[in-house]
Design goal:
2 copies of one chain form a homodimer. Chain A is of the alpha/beta class and 354 residues long. Chain A has 12 helices and 16 strands. In chain A, helix 5 links the parallel strand 8 and strand 9. The longest helix of chain A has 19 residues.
């Protein structure tokens, strides 16, 4: 039965690919198809496939068109287990808002691993926050204490509701959520209301208890945390080692460029540090500066090995754990593979001859 | 920047609602829009912009999915003068024909330099031959003798008619065309008829005299040549130095992978050698092995400088000149910029919300 279904699916795929067509999914369609549970499952699968040697991250391309004003980065890779390879290009034009245009454009082009034929073009902007929020939560799922109750999110920007939603789903034992803004002091009430509403929207239809989200000052928030998400673009390590209680888990998702750092190096020196990709963490992640300062080894573990059960997560309830999430093309590819499958099943998007 | 996270994030959300559009151009549409004159003008403009610092070639990405069976390469860059940046991904699956699928798929995704927004997705397969044929001819235009009469093309594959057509247009003084197949002996009559018909098709509507194309053996052909195009995938330098007359120009377009070589190193040692891109020529081009053997300097001239008039082309009627054309993303981008402009003007292709 399984064999004949596989054969039929393969035949359908071959027939379709002879026609050489491409599916275009716009921002609205992608937003309707993606979800927090999908992103959690996809990101975890991506890490696991990377560990199993079924995936690879290709070298990052970065180009600055106008220094400090216009740049783009292109992340790419292959995720054989999900039958996909491809790329995401994000352009960042700080002079766009003057002309009524968004700073960021994100576009993905993906290919069918089975044939090498182009498969889909997607507006990737909605995906980035889902997969980044999911990454922080997957780190917490595998490294935080099972009795962790208090989630603290540092940074109340666009990522914040995605991090909260993904954590509430991945760690159902959480009972309090505190947000703080290390760069601007306390989070404004206005922003808090927006975030609460976003989280409720993101988790609608999911079986999750959503607590009333609180705000607090940075130090007070960190001192009561069991799980911390750092999600600011800081170049100053605002999060002090001495504030962090034993047994706390941190997922650091903000540092994605050389020079960025949110957490004091001393904290990483005493923590069990797990990377999404060791090379990327040492070059652009939270680990970069501590490693340069000599407090981190050259090689450390990746989250995929922990998910696969090949390496332990935390070793005790007192251990501080850190997941350095720099963001991999594979997270996008895994999420896109699921979005495109769903779009094919539901007939969503424009299909054009190519 | 660090201080403006909240503001930037908010701004991003406000303007995120603006829907982008993307134009999809399929193989038939691209084939109808591209032309030999367009490719010649585009490729020359690309080289000139590279020299003027208005363009750059980004690092090549190459990945082998299954050793020797399935791979892909991704060439990318920016061409500011033409208002475009982007990429071309070519997948090469040698196991595809078993399943009735083509070995190669080529797809381009390009962006608007002015805004960073995605602009078009194209089937890039038809473009490669036009821009490669044009590259060989642009090299000859700037380096061959003004009284060159006999064009010899080594290799009678898919590129051959494109090289002939572009040369006939760029060098109207040519009066004879001889093709030869260094890897399989003389060119068959059947193949000759196809090539003649292709050239007539490619140049229909152009003001060009098309001579009756001849065939000859390799040595005999080379000994009478004024202009030579080498266009085979050879790893053996079949073209002997001693056969080449003083004053001959060679455009080498075949070598595009480490280890490939068509022309004996001794010929390059005595020639004025001009590159499309020095780094690429030294790593994957005709220059790679002669350079390793120590007969070429580390730095030499690029064609863009010759086109701009900043450096001389040939210095005498006796000098042998060589243009090493490895193929740059910029050639594709320049051609695509013109194709997309024409498609916009003519309303060709599918325009989808993104």
């Amino acid at each position: 039965m399984t064999g004949s279904l596989g054969g039929a699916a393969l035949m359908r795929e071959l027939v379709e690919d002879i026609m050489d067509h491409i599916r275009i999914l716009n921002a609205d369609e992608v937003s309707r198809l993606v979800s927090i549970p999908m992103a959690l499952e996809a990101v975890e699968a991506a890490y696991a496939q990377k560990h199993a040697g079924q995936a690879s991250v290709w070298p990052l391309l970065f180009h600055e068109f106008v220094d400090g004003v216009r740049d783009m980065d292109l992340k790419s890779g292959n995720l054989d287990g999900d039958g996909i390879w491809g790329l995401k290009a994000i352009s960042c034009y700080y002079d766009n808002p003057e002309r009524g245009l968004p700073v960021y454009h994100g576009t993905s082009l993906v290919f069918d691993y089975a044939t090498g034929a182009p498969k889909a073009v997607l507006n990737a902007m909605p995906i980035t926050r889902y997969r980044t929020g999911a990454a922080g939560a997957v780190g917490a799922k595998w490294l935080a204490r099972k009795d962790a109750e208090v989630l603290v999110v540092c940074g109340d920007g666009g990522l914040c509701p995605y991090l909260i939603s993904a954590n509430l789903l991945a760690l159902p034992q959480l009972s309090r959520v505190v947000i703080t803004n290390p760069l601007h002091g306390r989070t404004s009430d206005e922003r808090l209301g927006e975030i609460q509403a976003s989280v409720e929207g993101l988790l609608s239809g999911c079986d999750a208890d959503i607590p009333a989200i609180e705000t607090d000052g940075l130090e007070a928030a960190v001192r009561q945390a069991d799980v911390i998400m750092t999600a600011t673009p800081s170049y100053d390590p605002y999060l002090k080692d001495e504030w962090v209680r034993p047994g706390t888990h941190l997922s650091c998702v903000g540092a994605d460029k050389s020079g960025k750092q949110e957490v004091e190096s001393a904290l990483l020196a005493r923590a069990r540090v797990v990377a999404d990709d060791v090379h990327q963490c040492l070059t652009v992640g939270e680990c970069e500066l501590p490693h340069e300062q000599g407090v981190l080894p050259d090689k450390f573990d990746e989250i995929g090995a922990v998910i696969a059960g090949d390496l332990p997560g935390r070793s005790s309830n007192d251990q501080v754990t850190v997941f350095d999430s720099t963001g991999l093309s594979l997270q996008d590819l895994a999420t896109i593979a699921r979005i495109v499958s769903q779009a094919e099943a539901d007939g969503v998007g424009v299909v054009a001859d190519l």
